[in-house]
Amino acid sequence: MKSRKVSFENRDGSALAAVLELPEDQQPLAFAIFAHCFTCSKNNLAAVHICRALSRRQIAVLRFDFTGLGDSEGDFAATSFSHNVADIIAAGRFLSESYQAPTMLIGHSLGGAAVLHAANQMESVRAVVTLGAPFDPRHALQLIASARPEIEADGEARVEIAGRPFTIRKAFVDDLQKQDPAETLRTLSAALLVMHSPRDTVVGIDNAAAIYQAAKHPKSFISLDPADHLLTRKEDSNYAADMIATWVGRYLEGGAEVQPAPAGMDNRVTVRTPAGGFRSDLFASGHALVADEPVAFGGTNQGPSPYDYLQAALGACTGMTVQMYAQRKKWPLAEVVVRLRHEKIHAQDCEHCEDPKQKLDHFERELELSGDLSQEQRQRLLEIAEKCPVHKTLLDEIRITTHLREPEE
Questions:
Q1: Which element (helix H / strand E) includes 59?
Q2: What is the domain range of residue 111?
Q3: Three-class secondary structure of residue 51 per DSSP
């Protein structure tokens, strides 16, 4: 994926800082907006993990800081829940003018309540996702309960939320009191996905039940057990992203089909390996894959190794070539199973790459052919397997040219 820093103006003219997570070398299937939790920021772990995971699934996501938070301009003390809703609408306007109108809104915690209120004011939105969201925005008042008398008496109070000080004004409290979540959900015209963990101790799962019951169909619920409220574990946020990407495909234009790659990119494979390990994100003809190394070689074993992919390419090409030949001959070949083994491990190859004796690679390939085939037909298909294009490429002289490209801003 590609992370692009952008900014846009809210209704008051303040610049809101944002990051647009874009698919790597692919046309996005859709654009989405992610609204973070109360007093959090766009760099909250759940926001980062979910947005990047969705971008690997061809959904571009804009995550931004609400007014007065993170890197955004403005005075947080002067904002309200309605102000947050207006910020989401401003984000949608920015995407519509600069990229493409957003199809989906995703909100975490109070951000989830905010996207529900914003959806009906954004014509392009066809799907809404809430993560650990309260049914009633007034749930946020529990975080400032001890300061309510001071706020009522003096008009504002200094409170501590998640270890950080914030000024909360009476206007914020009054605005929350005016919200009508039941009416908002009753009139919601977009499809709704409610995601919540039964182990959420900040916003109880009874809120998810209330949201679901108040909304009209189409609506869905997915449990995030065993995640906590902030989805601090990467596997929990990745799971949420997987479920969102699968669910929203029903509500995208043209279904969930991947759009054709731009001209000139049909044969392009892009691999991005960030710092901190060997795990790499692969993008091949519109498909997102993952590569890694085994734990024994310093990786985290989150995906096949490069040599695993090399063997897989040979195996897939072998099976396709054999099936193609059998179909052309109208032979009764039912299934091809190709099993491969590579005798040399990746770590040894790198450690001794200057030693000619270590450059001999041996692939052992075994074919299992199912179907009512004669012995002569089986022998011929074995010969055809030797002619698969990847097999030929591995045996032919290969030239690889490498050049530097300047990083994008």
A1: strand 59-64
A2: 2-140+173-251
A3: helix
Considering the domain boundaries, does residue 272 fall inside one? no
Whole-number Å distance between alpha carbons of 68 and 74: 4
56, part of any domain: yes
DSSP 304-335: --HHHHHHHHHHHHHHHHHHHHHHHHT--EEE
User: Are 110 and 37 spatial neighbours (Cβ–Cβ below 8 Å)?
Assistant: yes
Looking at residue 159, its pLDDT comes to 87
Question: Among 7-11, 232-236, 342-346, 402-406, whose mean pLDDT is lowest?
Answer: 342-346
Q: Cβ atoms within 10 A of the Cβ of 10, count? A: 24
Q: pLDDT digits over 367-388, tens only?
A: 999 999 999 999 999 999 999 9
Which of helix, strand or coil describes residue 275? coil
Q: Could you tell me if residue 166 is inside a domain?
A: no
How many domains are there within the chain? Answer: 2
* Alpha-carbon Rg for the chain in angstroms: 27
pLDDT tens digits, residue range 338-351? Answer: 999 988 654 455 55
Q: Distance of CA 234 to CAs 77, 170, 227, 304, Å?
A: 32, 37, 10, 19
Mean pLDDT of the chain: 88
| pTM for this predicted structure | 0.70
